[in-house]
Structure to design on (390 residues):
């Protein structure tokens, strides 16, 4: 389905209950499975990525199709490889079959995994026969995806002799690896990260009840809306001020784009300020998911910016560098935005109706991947949204 979206006056006053963090939820699901379900998770994400991961963990049939869920594919590759005497075919959408997996499979092969490519080498679908994996010392590149590293770290405590994982190049999205280790520590698993090597001994995940905080990545689109509004008072519920999520950095970035934010009574309040810095430079190697809301905001406000650390964006749900460039060019012509099966494309371009008038957003269902109630929440903020009926 396609939507037309607009806003009558650019004044935004609303209170939003943000979705639970899918990054935290997905890590917790693997830990829960490895602890024989002795962990209770409250406020788990209801997004498509998390639902697909949960289905994969609980799958009773041999074929698991995770659709567009890259996190689910990567986490399940390691998890299923470690489940003895089980056999699966792990696959996904056309885009999933274009996203590289070889680096992770190579490491798992060294650990004794039995994984075969069913089509093109280095890509899904995979045939996985679970078996007991062996710990030890291994090397992995950090420049492709932090999720490869997280996928291995999550199973590391279950391996005899544990694991020493040496990261042999610059690590993209490093905050997500820190997040993984902090969550593992919450469940009793100790680790040591010295220089470029992470060491985890064989241990057991401990039973615990936990509650998932809201998603700072989802919050970034509300910072974008605040930046493009003429005036705003936006209340965001569920965020943690001392969050383990790297994308809390959006609070700092958007302060320089006219958005003040402060915590009050456990809610984050967004209002306008008069700061609008020109010629900003962003190194997003640690925060690649903030590229789209930042790039779209700069374009809308006609503020120059330089972005670096964005190489990993080429292998996300879409080639995000190319997709953003393509769609920004349309804003002064037909105003019909394609979303490339990428949830963040829909959510970063919708706010641009505040600067460019009514827009058409195609394939609006993509937001289910991380923020299922996004369009409902936009209506709470006064956006006018109507389906286009062919």
């Amino acid at each position: 389905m396609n939507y037309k979206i607009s806003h009558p006056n650019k004044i935004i006053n609303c209170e939003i209950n943000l979705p639970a963090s899918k990054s935290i939820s997905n890590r917790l699901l693997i830990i829960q499975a490895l602890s024989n379900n002795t962990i209770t998770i409250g406020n788990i994400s209801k997004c498509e990525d998390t639902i697909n991961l949960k289905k994969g963990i609980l799958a009773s049939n041999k074929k698991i199709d995770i659709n567009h869920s890259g996190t689910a594919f990567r986490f399940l590759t390691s998890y299923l490889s470690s489940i003895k005497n089980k056999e699966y075919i792990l696959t996904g959408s056309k885009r999933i079959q274009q996203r590289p997996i070889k680096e992770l499979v190579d490491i798992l092969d060294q650990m004794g995994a039995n994984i075969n490519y069913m089509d093109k080498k280095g890509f899904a679908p995979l045939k996985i026969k679970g078996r007991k994996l062996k710990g030890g010392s291994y090397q992995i590149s950090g420049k492709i995806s932090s999720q490869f590293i997280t996928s291995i770290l999550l199973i590391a405590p279950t391996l005899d002799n544990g694991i020493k994982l040496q990261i042999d190049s610059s690590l993209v999205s490093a905050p997500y690896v820190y997040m993984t280790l902090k969550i593992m520590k919450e469940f009793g698993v100790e680790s040591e990260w010295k220089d470029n090597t992470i060491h985890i001994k064989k241990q057991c995940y401990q039973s615990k009840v936990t509650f998932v905080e809201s998603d700072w990545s989802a919050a970034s689109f509300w910072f974008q809306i605040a930046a493009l509004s003429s005036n705003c008072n936006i209340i965001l519920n569920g965020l943690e001020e001392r969050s383990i999520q790297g994308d809390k950095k959006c609070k700092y970035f958007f302060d320089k784009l006219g958005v003040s934010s402060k915590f009050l009574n456990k809610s984050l309040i967004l209002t306008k300020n008069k700061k609008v810095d020109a010629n900003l430079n962003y190194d997003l190697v640690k925060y690649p998911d903030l590229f789209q809301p930042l790039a779209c905001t700069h374009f809308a406000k006609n503020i120059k910016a330089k972005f670096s650390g964005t190489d990993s964006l080429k292998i996300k749900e879409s080639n995000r560098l190319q997709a953003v460039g393509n769609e920004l060019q349309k804003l002064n012509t037909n105003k019909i935005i394609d979303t490339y099966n990428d949830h963040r494309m829909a959510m970063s371009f919708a706010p641009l109706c505040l600067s460019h008038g009514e827009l058409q957003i195609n394939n609006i269902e993509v937001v289910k991947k991380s923020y299922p109630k996004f369009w409902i929440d936009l209506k709470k903020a006064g956006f006018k949204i109507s389906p286009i009926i062919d």
In short: The two ends are 10 Å apart (CA to CA).
